[in-house]
Amino acid sequence: MNNPARFSDVYRFKVTFECIAPLQDDLEWKLIFVSCPGNEELDQELDDCLVGPVPEGINSFEFEGAAPDPSRIPTDDVLGVSALILTGSYRDQEFVRVGYYQNTEYDNDEMKENPPPKIIFERLVRDINSKPRVTRFHIKW
């Protein structure tokens, strides 16, 4: 909902899904920032929330997650492409994963062409690709 944005801004998503039968338990949603795909230890869970009870039909809610902690991102992985993953789970079973690519760069052409030796996070902007990759998983409902 707030794209593009400053790197330090919160993430805001509107999540819409269809439920074909009422659910007894809550759905758990998580937002995860992946700065270094080869190292899961550097993944940052930005927020999670429980949604429920979930009635049959089209459901929607707004999800807000904090910006990633810059101190946990390797310097070489700050600029360029990273990933943002939104997961949905029911009874500790992941049923959907929505992956977005995020590009992070400086807010002006001069800094883009000649990045300073030390990252200036206040000058970074992020742009999330509008075409996510959606993976669905079969679970026991």
UniProtKB/TrEMBL annotation:
Family under the similarity heading: Belongs to the ASF1 family.
InterPro entries reported for this sequence: ASF1-like, ASF1-like_sf
GO CC term, one of those recorded: nucleus
Species, as recorded: Gymnopilus junonius (Spectacular rustgill mushroom)
Gene Ontology biological process: DNA replication-dependent chromatin assembly
GO MF annotations in UniProt: histone binding
Name of the molecule in the record: Anti-silencing function protein 1
Localization in the cell: Nucleus
Pfam families registered for this protein in UniProt: ASF1_hist_chap
Keyword Nuclease carried by entry: no
This protein's UniProt keywords: Chaperone, Nucleus, Transcription, Transcription regulation
Domain of life: Eukaryota
The keyword Chaperone is assigned to this record: yes
